[in-house]
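Thread: quick sanity check before group meeting

JM: Hey all, I'm pulling together slides for Thursday and realized we never actually wrote out the predicted structure for the chain we discussed last week. Dropping the sequence here so it's in one place. If anyone has concerns about the input, flag it before I start.
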Amino acid sequence: MSTRLTQKGTPMVDSLSLQLVFSASKLQEQISDYLANSLKSKGYESASPTVLNFLSALDCGVNYGSEIARNLGVSRQMVAKTVKELCRVGYLEQVAGVGKQKQILFTQLGENLISDARQLLADLDKKFMTEVNDKKLQETLDSLNQLNTLLLDSDKQ
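JM (edit): ok, ran it. Output follows.
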């Protein structure tokens, strides 16, 4: 590990963790873009990385705005606005629930979108396994899970 100095003399230590963050972020962005573009070519005009990220936080069954907000770390108002837009484009629907809370459900089009997205990801898995080999890919996943566990454990201390 080395340290470089900025023009003002501030030390900047090299970090593998920083490289990991950038690489993981770039990979996530590339996969999201690939998925969104592939789904758009299948006719899902409103498929975007943001929409797909939001929909991926939902359960296949009944969802509630407060749970979605908690899972995504956003406000309930943001969830309500996004759900309204996704209802408009046909991916979600809201139905009366218990009390004031409305149930948020996938429409058939929404379920088809998620199903097609999962198939595209499975196809991408095959490509990764062919190019990288499935053992190396599994080792990478295991290493990432181990790093996640280490970070969670260090947060608890």
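AS: nice. The two ends are 26 Å apart (CA to CA). The CA atoms of residues 3 and 13 lie 4 Å apart.
JM: adding both to the slides.
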